[in-house]
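Review form for a predicted model. The reviewer records the input and the model, then writes brief findings.
Reviewer: anonymous (R2)
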Amino acid sequence: MPDLLVPTDIAHVIQIAIAPVFMLAGIGALLNVMTNRLGRVVDRWRKMEKELEAQEGAPCKERIAHLTILDRRMAHINRAIALSTLSALLICIVIILLFTGQLLRFPVASMVSILFIASMSVLVGSLLSFLLEIRIASRMLRVARTVLRPGAPPRHGHRKS
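Model under review:
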């Protein structure tokens, strides 16, 4: 049976666990932003779907193209959410390992390091997917601007696509 833990041991583990806990809070904030964006895309999809159902005749090619773009955005944001969630779960395992290692007195440094690196790598993938979704949304707005102002130069330093 392991020796009784002294308060300083627990305090040390809590100090070490602070960085992963802050990372977990940051991932939570990212997930909030991502789910809000997903909600907006889904709402837009549903609105366009109703408009297509109400429309008589063959669906407009522009609307179909718009739905295709919304579908791509949903795929990227869903991937970003899934990867962020996986990153958060890996961080939770890191925190559990830190306390379990201290409680049971076994070395966890290499396992914690590997899981932390994995979590950061997955988070990078999530952010890249999120960036792709943002780029698609921005490109959609630039196209809408050119429809509203044909022949006008792009604004805010955007290049014409």
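Findings: The longest helix spans residues 7-54.
Further findings: Residues 7-148 form one domain.
Recommendation: see findings above.
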